[in-house]
Amino acid sequence: MYPVEYKYTKDHEWILMTGATGRVGITDYAQKQLGDVVYLELPQVGRTLVPGESFGTVESVKAVSELYSPVAGEVVAVNTALAEKPEGVNADPHGNWLVEIRLTSPGDLDALLAQAAYVELVK
């Protein structure tokens, strides 16, 4: 259920590295807690983030939740198609990324959870 190649935060975001950039999304656990996602507020390309900084919100029929950056870096892409059809998060939270970040400090990844540790967290 939780891909092994991803890294996870305790706030239920994931990051998948592809070279010097990482795509960030929310986990299946987060999606299930939220319920049906109806709106995403995502940052502008070019925004600089630090680990733990809020970069947007996800709104569901139950609640509005902050989205937190797992790493430091610059937003190089935003999934505008998903922002237009946020229900894609419900269908496949690990297959639908929100933002792509060019890391400024690759060591930030060391502070994140591996798949097995995340599975333990959400038991």
Textual characterization of the structure:
The structure is a single chain. A hairpin with a 2-residue loop joins strand 2 and strand 3 (21-26). The mean pLDDT is 97. The chain is built from 4 helices and 9 strands. With 123 residues, the chain is α+β, with helices and mostly antiparallel strands. It is globular, with a radius of gyration of 13 Å. The chain has helices spanning 28-34, 80-84, 88-91, 115-121; strands at 7-8, 13-18, 21-26, 37-41, 48-49, 54-60, 64-68, 73-78, 99-103. A 6-stranded antiparallel beta sheet has the order 1-2-3-9-8-5. Strands 4-6-7 form a 3-stranded antiparallel beta sheet. The protein has one domain (7-121): Beta Barrel (OB fold (Dihydrolipoamide Acetyltransferase, E2P)).
In short:
The protein is of the alpha+beta class and 123 residues long. The chain has four helices and nine strands; from the N terminus they run βββαβββββααβα. The chain has helices spanning 28-34, 80-84, 88-91, 115-121; strands at 7-8, 13-18, 21-26, 37-41, 48-49, 54-60, 64-68, 73-78, 99-103.
